[in-house]
Amino acid sequence: MVTSPDFRFELDEERRVLVAHGDLDEAATFELRETLARTTDQLTTGLTIDLTDVDFLPSSAIGVLATAQTGARRNGATITFVAADGSVSQRVLTVCGLDYAESVSDAEA
Known about the structure:
Layout: E1 7-12, E2 17-23, H1 26-40, E3 47-56, H2 59-74, E4 79-82, H3 88-96, H4 104-108
Parallel strand pairs: 2-3, 3-4
Antiparallel strand pairs: 1-2
Helix pairs in contact: 1-2
């Protein structure tokens, strides 16, 4: 369970989509790191992380996401980030040079 009151996420294991909502503060970033480590450790298929509803995405959270993506690649899998046009996450991912899709359906295509 996420310990930050301003952040929550749901993981749809069947569709392989993690949807995040709110502020990725320090506590939430730690929880996300732990969740992604468990999820991506044995990942052999794709995972989509929808960041569209994330309102605060600091550099520590970007580091967690980039590390998870690198770990997945080592297993032959991919992690695709989703960030709607104009969202906070879209702006941060663009500045950081991380690729993203604009919708979950685009990522699944």
